[in-house]
Amino acid sequence: MSERAPASASFTVGVRAHNLTRMSDTALFGPDNLPYGLFSTPDSPGHRRLGIRYGDDVLDAGAAALAFGSAHADVLQQPSLNPLMAAGRSVWRAVRAESRSWLTEDVHRETAARHLLPLSGVRLHLPFEVADYVDFYASEQHATNVGRIFRPDDEALTPNWKHLPIGYHGRAGTVVVSGTPVVRPQGQRKPPNEPLPLFGPSRRLDIEAEVGFVVGAPSELGAQVGLDGFRDHVFGVTLLNDWSARDLQAWEYVPLGPFLGKSFATSVSPWITPLEALDAARVAPPARDLPLLPYLDDSAEGLAEGGLDLRLTVRLNGHVIAEPPFSTMYWTAAQQLAHLTVNGASLRTGDLYASGTVSGPEPAQFGSLLELTWGGREPLELPDGKRTFLEDGDVVTLTAWCPGPAGTRLGLGEVTGEVRPAVGA
Amino acid sequence: MSERAPASASFTVGVRAHNLTRMSDTALFGPDNLPYGLFSTPDSPGHRRLGIRYGDDVLDAGAAALAFGSAHADVLQQPSLNPLMAAGRSVWRAVRAESRSWLTEDVHRETAARHLLPLSGVRLHLPFEVADYVDFYASEQHATNVGRIFRPDDEALTPNWKHLPIGYHGRAGTVVVSGTPVVRPQGQRKPPNEPLPLFGPSRRLDIEAEVGFVVGAPSELGAQVGLDGFRDHVFGVTLLNDWSARDLQAWEYVPLGPFLGKSFATSVSPWITPLEALDAARVAPPARDLPLLPYLDDSAEGLAEGGLDLRLTVRLNGHVIAEPPFSTMYWTAAQQLAHLTVNGASLRTGDLYASGTVSGPEPAQFGSLLELTWGGREPLELPDGKRTFLEDGDVVTLTAWCPGPAGTRLGLGEVTGEVRPAVGA
């Protein structure tokens, strides 16, 4: 069969059963993608099940594993992805190969079809239990833009920026799945001409288009995970919207970093794409301007293609407002993991770390409204009006695709969220 | 019986069974204290049980609850404190009253004694599963000292400091129980006279003496927990050592805050003291220099005694090096919780937030070596030699007591840790 689309009997089951609104998505979730998620059905809403996306369907992975007598049925029958994530790379590979064969091989298709459900008929949940959440700051263009906007009197990049991937811990408990409404946060802001801070709903609510990496295999306290350990520990990839209240952030972030300006919500895809699915998207990161310390030096063979050619799209109320290219990120996910653990910090199953806002060199490639409107000074002209920061009712959607094997394209699970008015406002 | 010490039949069981090394501790953990922990015994090391400390004994709470036919036996028979913590304030009160009666009333003492084990014979574990960990910066003296040492050319306090309790998220996965060795972290540091950062073990490993607050009852995303909600959500209190690598921290922390300089280990007591036990220690915080926004204004009746008169002691290799007074903290734990949630961020059972380093106005009250040695420039003279920052093999121990009912004293569970050499060093 063709590698380009899951045009199989099993796939047809889903297509018949529901209304396809975005036909192009079908091909992006073919047999070379197979991301994992967690779903429930309306007739048994409390029963969360592990699912594998295939075109516009979802495979009930636990039920299929039982039907096929899989040796990995135990981890596939859990109400969370975490047990599969914790099982390690050899199990990830085996389960992926197995489920691909169920969905694509003639002898299995009829059995598999019995465990496929149309995506439109299921509810998708946060796919894994988040342990620690770390947010990096790995785009040179983004860090330069933010430096120019927030600290116009200083050098745009701080002196440490090209020596280490700067990051900080965020709030794991407010990581939410795509589709969760985002309530406009309240808090303190201090306009420059006011003598005292004001309290109220944020007036500069923003998005950050990011890529998140999900840790599967844990590490011991005191052990460092080197660059070559990245693929043994990282299970997969998600899109991530790091919602940001710029006015709260600007007032609070010196000297200990962002806190309430970020902690109200972080949205992730309902689908985690296995790292292995992204092999055809591996690219070399940009040339480094300064020599790196050995634990971050990825110039050696086998490590040099640490970048990923993911093409992101940011839509505001359906209109494309940016197309950030992940391939331009200065620091790679492997470098971020090596840095995160170089002090002996341990990893847990479910640790999530995000790239930081993805911004390419062109203005149409900036991954936040802060940059797209240059601090709110240059509004975006959209068909339904001007925008600086987000208004109540706005819907932001992140999508992405990347090259797959043999000229195909793979999609990452989209992340969407609607802004709701502040509580009591 | 006297309120001052648990001089009861049940208590004698423990005294007979093991060697008391610190007799004074006995009185600090009497019937008005009763902190919770998690223990196992050598004959069944995998069986973690909820314990209540009583003098130098630990009550096997689950077994006692069964024996007494407690209505709360379910939450007391868990291998974690989290279910009890999640059960809410009315259950916390009921369990506390019940266990106090088991330990102190004549009719119950004989039964209770069968479920008391000498503390010296059990192993203590991390008492709860940490959800998110936040570290605040609430001591004016500490923030002033750090500002002077790290940013000598600027105002010591940033302009936001007296308007909001500054805090940031730390790494929950590396919160460890007292007694866990702390491996010296490696990382990047950049001495001012070096052109490039150097890599290696931290040379400025430090401690921070803090008090941690443990959230029991969760809150919904989007809901704010006001000052008056503090006692409904916070289960109890622990001592906390926020180990800090000052050289890593100084190089990395601009612009997004501390990361690897803190994330390698944070030590907490094995005992969580219920908030209710600290009622006699409530005091008014210091006078505020600036008016506060309403969500932080605790001048109203019922909120004004938001401070706690906890007297901390920091020992280095057994020698007292500081006695930080928690009553001097500018921001209270209730204000920190109100701030943490004012943007709608939700709370989870197991959220831990720490006060920040406790430093009083006198040099002998500073809660970190950074301050005690003024950035390493004024070494401490100890009986076994000079110290600026920690050396391998050093043992740091935090203890604290506070006023209890009727002139008694209550102790908090101590936090201790030994510094081990860097990996491969």
Automatic annotation (TrEMBL), chains A, B:
<keyword id="KW-0828">Tyrosine catabolism</keyword>
<keyword id="KW-0378">Hydrolase</keyword>
<feature type="domain" description="Fumarylacetoacetase-like C-terminal">
    <location>
        <begin position="134"/>
        <end position="418"/>
    </location>
</feature>
<dbReference type="InterPro" id="IPR011234">
    <property type="entry name" value="Fumarylacetoacetase-like_C"/>
</dbReference>
<dbReference type="InterPro" id="IPR005959">
    <property type="entry name" value="Fumarylacetoacetase"/>
</dbReference>
<feature type="domain" description="Fumarylacetoacetase N-terminal">
    <location>
        <begin position="33"/>
        <end position="127"/>
    </location>
</feature>
<keyword id="KW-0460">Magnesium</keyword>
<dbReference type="InterPro" id="IPR036462">
    <property type="entry name" value="Fumarylacetoacetase_N_sf"/>
</dbReference>
<keyword id="KW-0585">Phenylalanine catabolism</keyword>
<protein>
    <recommendedName>
        <fullName>fumarylacetoacetase</fullName>
        <ecNumber>3.7.1.2</ecNumber>
    </recommendedName>
</protein>
<dbReference type="Pfam" id="PF09298">
    <property type="entry name" value="FAA_hydrolase_N"/>
</dbReference>
<comment type="pathway">
    <text>Amino-acid degradation; L-phenylalanine degradation; acetoacetate and fumarate from L-phenylalanine: step 6/6.</text>
</comment>
<keyword id="KW-0479">Metal-binding</keyword>
<dbReference type="InterPro" id="IPR036663">
    <property type="entry name" value="Fumarylacetoacetase_C_sf"/>
</dbReference>
<keyword id="KW-0106">Calcium</keyword>
<dbReference type="Pfam" id="PF01557">
    <property type="entry name" value="FAA_hydrolase"/>
</dbReference>
<dbReference type="InterPro" id="IPR015377">
    <property type="entry name" value="Fumarylacetoacetase_N"/>
</dbReference>
